[in-house]
């Protein structure tokens, strides 16, 4: 009760509105999420984490704003942000439908097509609690190898989540990144952490994006991550996306390449078999499988 009262008071200070009720929201192990019902009749969700890493919530808010500006996939509006919390519009969760999946596929293509000025972004960010280097590089293969894969290879080795042999396999794949990456594409406006837990299937019939690690990247990255962890009506999403915005030939074969980054992030954060899975994906790429 004391925590809820403190959360309500924090929201009231930030929003300048009264909080009628608070309800804990399940899910997520990084932040505490609480649903708010406000005196003006609106619903909101506040995410809190005392002593969050510097810029943690600010980067998330910037990513939400940037994705929302694309007028593609739906994104909740940011209501307030502070170093210890983020308040966004509440999206009432509903059931996944094929119609919503098809619309989301098309909308995600629109978001990607809004583009970015460079591969990377103006400041570093976070993916989960892991730092996300975003300093730009001229081409996506350079950016992916230098900013997305190799920093996490080193971190995973340091944490004992990746053996030296496994690291060597991934490094070998990165030496061939220009051969493996497919045709050049301009920077896309991507979510960057697009697994099913960061999709909210709303009662309004739309799919909403939350918790981004947004940056200028390769559009196949979002689709590969969605495919790696699965999602309701995944094939409908992919089919609608490709119909709206065709992908270069061989994109399905390149999914293991784009999955190296999330696998390595999970290896760094959680250990387990993720490091071995990343090495296996790299070996498959090198073998042409």
Structural overview:
The chain has 289 residues and is α+β, with helices and mostly antiparallel strands. The protein folds into 2 domains: 2-89, Phosphorylase Kinase, domain 1, CATH 3.30.200; 98-287, Aminoglycoside phosphotransferase (APH), C-terminal lobe (Aminoglycoside 3'-phosphotransferase, Chain: A, domain 2, Alpha-Beta Complex), CATH 3.90.1200. It is 45% helix and 17% strand. The chain contains 10 helices and 11 strands. The protein has helices spanning 2-15, 56-69, 98-113, 140-158, 164-175, 177-180, 219-229, 234-244, 255-270, 274-287, and strands at residues 19-25, 32-38, 43-48, 78-82, 85-89, 125-127, 130-132, 188-190, 199-201, 207-209, 215-217. Strands 1-2-3-5-4 form a 5-stranded antiparallel sheet, with helices on both faces. A two-stranded antiparallel ribbon has the order 6-7. Strands 8-11 form a two-stranded antiparallel sheet. β2 (32-38) and β3 (43-48) form a beta hairpin. α4 (140-158) runs antiparallel to α5 (164-175), α5 packs across α10 (274-287) and α7 crosses α9. The longest helix has 19 residues, at 140-158. The radius of gyration is 19 Å and the shape is globular. It starts with a helix and ends with a helix.
């Amino acid at each position: 009760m004391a925590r809820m009262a403190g959360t309500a008071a924090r929201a009231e200070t930030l929003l300048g509105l009264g909080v009628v009720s608070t309800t804990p929201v399940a899910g997520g192990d990084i932040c505490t999420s609480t649903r708010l019902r406000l005196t003006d009749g609106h619903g909101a969700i506040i995410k809190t984490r005392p002593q969050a890493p510097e810029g943690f919530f600010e980067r998330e808010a910037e990513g939400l704003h940037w994705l929302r500006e694309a007028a593609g996939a739906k994104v909740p509006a940011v209501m307030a942000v502070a170093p210890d919390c983020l308040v966004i519009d509440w999206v009432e969760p509903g059931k996944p439908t094929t119609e919503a999946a098809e619309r989301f596929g098309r909308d995600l293509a629109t978001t990607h097509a809004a583009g970015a000025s460079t591969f990377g972004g103006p400041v570093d960010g976070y993916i989960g609690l892991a730092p996300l280097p975003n300093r730009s590089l001229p081409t996506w293969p350079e950016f992916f190898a230098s900013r997305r894969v190799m920093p996490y290879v080193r971190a995973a080795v340091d944490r004992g989540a990746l053996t030296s042999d496994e690291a060597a396999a991934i490094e070998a794949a990165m030496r061939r990144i220009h051969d493996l990456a497919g045709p050049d594409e301009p920077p896309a406006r991507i979510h960057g952490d697009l697994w099913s837990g960061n999709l909210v299937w709303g009662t309004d019939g739309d799919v909403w994006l939350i918790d981004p690690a947004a940056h200028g990247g390769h559009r196949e990255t979002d689709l590969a991550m969605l495919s790696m962890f699965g999602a309701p009506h995944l094939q409908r999403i992919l089919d609608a996306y490709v119909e709206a915005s065709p992908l270069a030939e061989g994109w399905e074969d390149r999914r293991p390449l784009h999955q190296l980054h999330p696998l390595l992030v999970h290896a760094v954060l959680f250990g387990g078999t993720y490091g071995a899975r990343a090495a296996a994906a790299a070996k498959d790429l090198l073998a042409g499988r």
